[in-house]
Amino acid sequence: MTTSISATDTVTRDALAVLQPGFTGITAPEWVLRRVDEGLASVALFGRNIRTAEQVTALTAQLRAGREDLLVAIDEEGGDVTRLEVRTGSSFPGNLALGHVDDLGLTREVARELGRRLAECGVNLNWAPSADVNSNPGNPIIGVRAFGADTELVARHTAAYIEGLQSSGVAACTKHFPGHGDTAIDSHHAMPRIDVDLETLHARELVPFRAAIAAGSKCVMSAHILLPALDPDRPATVSPQILTGLLRQELGYDGLIVTDAVEMQAIAATYGIEQGSVLAIAAGADALCVGGGLEDEGTVVRLRDALVRAVHSGELAEERLADAAARVRALASWTRQARRTGTESGAAAQEGTAPGSDIGLVAARRAVLVTGSAAPLTEPAYVAAFTSASNIAVGDETPWGVAAELARLVPGTETGTYGGETEDPAGAVLRAAGERPLVVVVRDVHRHAWMAETLDALVARRPGTVVVEMGVPQAAPRGALHIATHGAARVCGLAAAEVIARGTGGGAA
């Protein structure tokens, strides 16, 4: 059967309304503006769309020229996951740092300032915070993006973050429902599976989401994970039992449900993005995130047409699509009202941000955990950065480490990068360092055997080595001075560099 698709009929407009697509360029392509006029209610910004705060402000104004209530979404968690500051590193520490400090007022203030900067750029939906409980320390995708491994701590900071972010007029999107913390697979690449019973899920994974709902989170993002205790056949994103039965009916959530990116392999390789999108809306999702990897008009048309065909064939109820579109428009209306009641200010001096509070650096300094002691650094050091492949959520564009910040504080400091493929990495580091003080920077050393082995070899040869762990500090501290930053944001690197430069008297802080 051939389905006639009109750009003006209600079903087609509703199908466009439930999409949250990305695009290429730092100005709005003609096709995006045309689709907004036809009913597209949301767009998503990624690092590729961002250069400066002034440019983002101009871009969002251009996008809203024909539709004032357009949702402009972004994945701006702060910490390791930043889009506004993709080329410099974030001005805010991420969730693990905030959870380590465990000051709800601080978490609320960090989220409020982050939201203020987003709002000034015209962004009104943030795919944050992560409410995952990092119960599996080997998790390759969550890690420092979680507030921690303690359920109640994650719950209270999730609520505080939502309150802070939404007080700035930016809608929070709590993720990844019903919890991505106990996984060993990245759903960008394959289908993760969590084999725990219902009692564990309710006592652990779901507690932070209950807190998020109570805090008024305007949006919840589904995870592409299989939880047999809830649905033995379908991952959460396409499961009626999980999205409608659990989230809507049992937990009483009435806000917007958005999927994680439908082009991720957990969905794309299992169902294909068209069928996966239809199944997601039918299951209870209201919006479809797409565009991290597929940012073209053809993808938008494919998904729009798949939804329209599904309605005409009876596979997707027209009322369900209409309800989903209405929820998108309702959130857009909330953000429009919030923007009108908020304050407008000038553009940012720092790339990707606006001038204001230095609460991010304050938080990063408080999150540093120091073990051991070292004298102040009075001569240039050599910084060896141990790297591994970045996960897709973080990306490989954003710089991290301490070398740049330490070189500003101690001019002449140099750096080298070492990976698992480096032949005799310990020997290579020692040859490059010579007699200079040695600083080794790692990220999740507990997950990488070669890092741990190389670090042990270096500390054995150079007991005065300073070690900076910028991931989850799961491994035992090594080195004369061990600094755990609980994340790799730019401000975390600066906080660590300050400790190295000034030295510490001893003991643990």
Give a verbal description of the structure:
The chain contains 17 helices and 14 strands. With 509 residues, it is of the alpha/beta class. Helix 1 (10-17) crosses helix 11, helix 1 (10-17) crosses helix 12 and helix 13 (359-367) crosses helix 17 (490-502). The longest helix is centred in the middle third of the chain and has 24 residues, at 318-341. It is globular and about 75 Å long. The N and C termini lie far apart (69 Å).
List keywords for this structure.
509 residues; alpha/beta; six-stranded parallel β-sheet; six-stranded mixed β-sheet; 17 helices; 11% strand; globular
Radius of gyration: 23 Å
Average pLDDT works out at 91
User: Portion of residues in helices?
Assistant: 40-55%
Counting H and I runs of at least 4 residues, what is the number of helices?
Answer: 17
User: Segments where pLDDT lies below 50 for 5+ residues?
Assistant: 343-355
**Shape category:** globular
Compute the number of strand runs: 14
Q: What structural class do helix, strand and pairing data support?
A: alpha/beta
